[in-house]
Every structure is written in C-alpha cells, then in structure tokens.
Amino acid sequence: MEQTPRVDSLDRALADLARALGEVDFALSGDDRAAREGARDRLARDVAGHRARLRDLEAPLLVVLGGVTGAGKSTVVNSLLGRAAVATGVLRPTTYDPALVANPADAGWFTGERVLAGLARVQPRGGRAGAPGEGGRQAAGGRGSGRRAGTLALLLDHNLPRGLALVDAPDVDSIGQGNRDLADRLLDAADLWLWFTTVGKYADEESMRYLRRAAARDTALAVVLTQVQPADAQVVVEDFRRKLIAAGIPADAPLLVVPHTTVTDERLPPAAIAPLRDWLRGLADPVRRREQRRRTLDGALDALPAEVAPLVAALEDEGRTATALRDEAHRAYEGAEREFAAALEQGLPLRQEVLANWERYVGTNRFLRLAEQATGQARDWIRGVAAGPVDPRERRLERETRVEVAGTLSGLVTQLVDLAATGTAAEWGRTGVGRDLLAAHPDLGHRAPDLAGRAEREVLAWQDEVVHLVETVGAERRNNARLASTAVTGVAAAALLVVLGATAGLTGAEVGIAAGAAAAQQALLVKLLGAGNLRWLIEQSRARLTERFADLAAEDRARYEAALAAADPAADADRLRQALAAVLATRRTPLPGGPGPAGALPPRTDVRQGPVRALPEPPRALPSPADGPPPVGGLTGPDPAPLEADGRQGATAAAAAPPGAPATRPERPGGLA
Asked: How far is it, in rounded angstroms, from Cα 398 to Cα 614?
C-alpha cells in the first residue's frame, strides 16, 4: 500500500512504543520478573505485527487455525489442499511444529522476518510438514527427529488461492507450556482467527477464555465446530451460539460446522468442508482481505491502552518497591549516625597507655600548674613558651595522642558504616527484588572497600580543623592574642581529649586519675580560651566531626541509591505513557477527507458479510452402512471426555515462547488432527 503522511506518523508512533517496551527490564520485579518480561515481549511482538499490517494492507491474509486438542485443524488443512500435507495422528498432541501454507506466488511475503519474526522457516522435503525425518511426527516415547523447536514449516501449494495464508497452530490446551505459548504467539500475529473446537469441548473454559479475548480485541474471527452428529446439529449449534454471544462474540460471527464423518488418507470428504472452503476463498478477495486486516488492526490498536496499563502498573509497583528498599538503606545509615553521635556523648575508649602518658604529662607540667594558679597570666605563659625551646617530649606526646584519637575514630567510623551496610543487605535479602540486586552488585553486602582509607583522611582533616578552631578562638576571642604554635598543638591535643571525653574506657582508680587530668585540661582551656569559647569550641568540633561522618555514611549509602537508580522504573513508566499517548494522538488526528481512527486505513465495513452455510448436506457427507466399519482412528467412535479447565492454561499467558521453545503435537480424539 502506498504510504501516506498519516500512515508514516502512526508507524513512527508505534515504533517509538516498541522502543519504549524494549527499554523496560523489570529489574525490580523479583519473582514476578519472568512473567512481566513475558507480557512485555508479547506486547512488543504485537506492536511489530501492528506495524506490519499497517504497512502491508495488501499482503496475503494470515489466517491462524487455533483451538483445542483433536478438533481437526490439520485434517482440515489437508482437506483444503486435497493432499496429506500436514501430519495427523492418533497421539495427543500431534502438531508439534506449526505449518504455514501459502500460494507459491505469495511465498515472498513469508520467507523473511516480516511476518512471525523469530521463527525459523523450513521447507519440508516432499512438501509435507511433520513427516518422518522433518521433525514433525514423534515416535512413541521419543522426541522427534531433532528439528530445532520453534520452526515454521513453509508449504507452498497452488490449491490455496493467492492472497490467503493458513497457519496450523499447536493446541491451546496442550499439556506442554511451550506448545501453548507458541499457539498464543501465532494467534497474536493473525489477521483472522479460525477457531476450532469440538462438540465435546465447545463449552470448555479454556476455549471460551480465548474467544472472550478475541471479542475484547475485536479480532476478526470465525468459529468451526467439528464432529457434529447431524441429529444433534441444531441443538448444539444453538447452544454454542448462545455461549458465544455471552462471551461477547457478535451474533452474526461466522459459525461453520464440520459433521462427524470418515477420515480417509488424513482428509475429510469434500462435501464436509465445502462451506468452510468457500468462505475462506472469499477472504482472498482484495476488498475482503483489507476489511479483515483493518478490523483486526483497529481492534488491536483500540486494545493498546488496556495492554500497556498492566506494564505501567507493574513499573509503578516497582517504584514502590524501590522506595521501600531506599528507605531501608536510609534507616540503616541514619541509625549509624545516631550511634556515632551517642558514642561522642559517652566518650570514646581510647588506648589507656597513650591516655596515661598524656595525663601524667598534663598533671605534672606547666599546663597543670598554670591551671592550678588560676591567674590571668595565660598569655604571658604562652609568650614564654613561644620564646623558649620546643619541648620534644611534649611534641611526641601530642603526636601520640592525635594518632590514638585518629585510629580510634577511624575504627569507629568504619565499624558503624559496615554495620549499616550489612544491615541494609540483610533487609534487602528478605525480598526477591533485594536478593536480585545484591546478586547483581555483590559489593553491597559490606561497606565500600576504600572506606577505611577515606575515614582516616577525614579524621586527620578534622584534627587539623580543631587546631584551626583553637587558633581562631585564641586570636579572635582573646583580644587577638594569637597562640604560639608550640602551645597550640598542646592546647589542641587537650581540646581533642575534652571533645571526645577522655575518661571513656577507663576503669577503677584510673577513672579518677583521668578525670582529674581531664579537669585540669578543661580548667586550662577555660583559662586560655574562656568558658564560653570552650563550649563553642567543643560544639563546633563535635558538629564538624558528625558532619564528616554523615558525609562518609552518605557516600557509602549512595551505592545502594545507584543500584536502585540504574533500574529506574519511573523513567520506564514515563516513556511507556508518553509513547502510548503519541499512538493514540496520531490515531485521533483528523486528515481532510481521511478515514477513521486507524489513520491511513480505508473505512471499515462489516467483515462478516455474505451467507455462511452452517451445515453441508448431511446425507452426502455421512457414510452409509454399506461402507463398512470405519478405519482405526475414524470419526464414528465415542467422543473423548472433555479436558478439565486448567488454571495454568490461560489465553493471556504472560510469557511468550522463546524461539528455541520445544513444540509438541496435539492429541487426536475422534480422528481429526
């Protein structure tokens, strides 16, 4: 079909939606991830199919024969072609690999990736799908001949009119999940569903669930009821029609009936399928073909909001999960900050040997004597210190004190941050989402490897800051009388011990000794700096230390933030919403003299036009007693018991079959395969 600006706009909008879907990875979905990814992949394939229909309205109509086990799809294909082109059998299921039948003139439409992308094409030898040696028929207890699962047998046959392609799909109620998923995938790609069911199964929930889905999407649909006894035909057809209407299928939807008859050479008598053959041939007409494709495309585009909505809801759920995980990390690291502040209030357990050396020095030297004199001669003392030689012992003790403070503080920082990290990992590990993130980021189980080095640098920088504060207080708060450098180091060491509560960690008599020394240091600092200035110094020193700890904790917590940000479900949800809105806006944009909602498509008419005969002439279709007993596996035996509806078998299965998924073949009750 010739492209128009409106077709191009809608195609681009759909391409943007496909890209938005491709960017969603559901990394925060935990145990639900596989199901959500399956739903995403299925919708992405649907969107690709919508684009193909939009661009190729003149392409052959893709009719997928779907339905329940043993309804006779393969047998009908053989009957339409007049030869045993698709394998049938008594084993259930029979159709392991789907077969696509097309006129040779239409082969170019189906040999590439334009339709049913991801399914490898094979052309069976002898033009028969599922024959021995082609991977289609499975020996009892075996696995077939080894053809790669997920292949599509391409059969070219002149008996099928141009403009029409049939796909014999696996059964939707197969016991194999891969089989059911492949059936879903083929039905999603169809321009029209030709739905097969039997007298024994037409009311089964599994079948009705698919029909309700087709109705919800306004998919072009016809239903084929097989194995119908002529005497029961009217009652069964009327009952089935009521159930179809209850499922949302329009009352005038085609319902074709195939009578209970004899299968010969894997085919039905021509009269048994005459109404179905005539109806299908009518679909090959270009006008009817466009109508069918237009109907399915319109319905699929109308269904996009409802199909995108669960994905957006899943991403919003991920957002709530991310918030909960982020809150866990914040709680753990905020707890570490509180513990650090409490440790400063309680006093740090500094090494006793260093404390004792410093305290003995303070208690016997000029510091203590100056404090005991309690005179206003501090500045005179400072000047005397500055004028005299540097006391090496005082410098060594000051350095030892600073090293001890640095080591103790760095160890406390490292310990508390590591506890916050391991606590966060423990809380995350309680959920599937958290476990997935921890597996993807093993470093999140503990503190960052370089934290200890950064903590040591921060503590040393803080000590220098305390020295600067002492200088500032001495210069600006004591009439600009600047402390001499020798005195500053000693005063700063004393200030560090006062800030950190030097008596912590001591026991017995040592507590009293240390307390006395601390009191002496504090008295000295009060004399040198003033009581108010000392309080300011302590408050500033502790505040800046806790700020540095908070920065280190925030840097370590940022690793968890980064892991969550990498998943960023909010951005994915926004892209999906915007892409969907663009598709809907493009469909609503009017074009002067243009068609309806689907944009570049011609106005739609009812696809269910033309008479459809519900039954062929039963007398000609049924065998007479003179024909003798039916062959083994024929149609005259009792119908099998209907399968129970299985909750695992759903028309809206979230996970789409991967290209390598194994395909199985449907069972064969009543002889139709």
From this structure: 105
